[in-house]
Fold:
Amino acid sequence: MTIFTLDEVEKTFTNGEIEENILKGISLSLKEGEITALVGTSGSGKSTLLTIAAGLQPASDGEVLFDGNNLTTMSSEQVRKIRAKEFGFVFQFAHLVPFLTVEEQLMLMLEVSESTLSKREQKKEIDQLLNVIGMEHRKNAYPSSLSGGEKQRVAVARAIIHKPKVLFADEPTASLDSKRSKDMMELIRDLTKKMNITTLMVTHDEEMLTYVDRILQMSDGMVLENK
Amino acid sequence: MNIGWKEIKKNKSRFLILGSIIFLVSLLTMIISGLANGLSQDNAALIKDLPEGHFYMSEDAEETYNLSRIDSDVQHEIMNDHQNAVALSIQMGFLIDQEDKQQSVAFVTATDSKLFTQVDEREVIVDRSLKEKGIKVGDLLTNNQLRDELVVKGFVDQKKFSHAPVAYINSEDYKKMYNVEQMQLVFLPGENSAQNFTGLQSYSNKDFLSTIPSYNAEQMSLTMIVSFLIVISGMLFAIFFYMMNIQKIGLYGILKAVGIKTSRLFKMIWTQMLFITIIALALSISLSHAFNSIAPEGMPFHLTFETTTQLSIIFLVVGFIGATLSGLQIRKIEPLRAIQQGED
Structure:
């Protein structure tokens, strides 16, 4: 079942009198629970496509449809609510809140997504997820005392604790070494499959493509291949 | 979850530094306000303690009360028409005590009124500060403009004029001392609007205070210092939070990307501002009031709870404005830029 559709999406940046067409009428759809990787050379437009799909910047033309909602016609507040409740984000760096413990990072995300769970249920949920990612013993630790791999695992937990429908991951393994990158991808794959979360991921690391269901090759603002 | 409080808990020293500076600035402001109030009392308690009303002095006195002379007919007319009207005169002078020491005083005489202490001829009632200088009830005081001696009949509390203790004397003695028949001023208490009397100019209590030499200059200087300190505290908040926000642009961008409302980030700053200001103010209020009770007797320091409440409200408002101004940049933060930049 299709959950996400991009229809003829274009993005043009204007720099003085020069207009640069970064995305040239991209159309694609994402199926529920599927992991899709966007690959391509630097400047091919993959990160721009991901951020437009995630509602972090508007498209110049075309439509972004998520679960029956047209993100391109919604107000920024409506898009923010969708981002908070239905989307999860993992970035190249963990970007954890430096003054919150691991448990509090996840608690904050549940609050932001307006979780209906009671405090007790939220704590239980957090404990379970931390247990799955092997970070239960570090739940009271601050980000400054975590290793790079641990930080990124917490970032993944923060991205999915509220059970989003779509996970957007922008180079999630770029700051990790090869071993940790594989562990991270395994974790993302296991969790998203278990929770039936659709994933759109930008990566330039070919080793990571073994963990995805579908690969979209981008070049010069267009999707060339659908592997 | 109160993320503002969480940040304070994690970065105690950073907030402690800001809190300490705000505490010192607010303490200094309260101490200077206490001094301003004290000097104001020292300069004009005689007038400040009067109920609201209007003073009248002759038009040709050019706002100088001791050049004013109220025409006797006009004075009688006013006194007949207004039961509560009081005619008074104030002149700076001195009294010589029994040890031949000269004490500067402000001689005050008034027609029959509850607002001014009444004394009989050849008697004087003086401000209690003269008691500390060795003057006792029953002492005989002299003045080289008066042939008779004045007997000290008692003391009054906190009656000062132009930084000198007030000496209430009878109008007959006053006339002999200054060789005048007319009174200088008429005071009409409780009048909402000034009356029109031939040849007289009206002054509200506040306007009359301005005619006291040095009163305005003294109060304006201190008010200026207090105003500057308040502005400085607002700027401190603005600069501190601005610097903090600059360091957290990436974090705010990520938080906005994951769906946190901008208003929540503002609430975080306001919580921190309120927390710091309330603690700093509580400490400075306690210390300044403690100082109020232990200040040396001769020091003109007078701090009321009304003044500290007003200053506290001003500090909170200024802190709020400072923090909000610094937070305006949060609104402009693009989540995308934060994602594209590296981790702090």
Remarks:
- Chain A has one domain: 2-226.
- The first strand of chain A starts at residue 2 and ends at 15.
- The mean pLDDT of chain A is 91.
- Chain A touches chain B at residues 47, 51, 54, 56-57, 80-81, 83-85, 87, 89, 91-95, 97-100, 104, 107-109, 111-113, 142, 158, 170, 175 (CB under 8 Å).
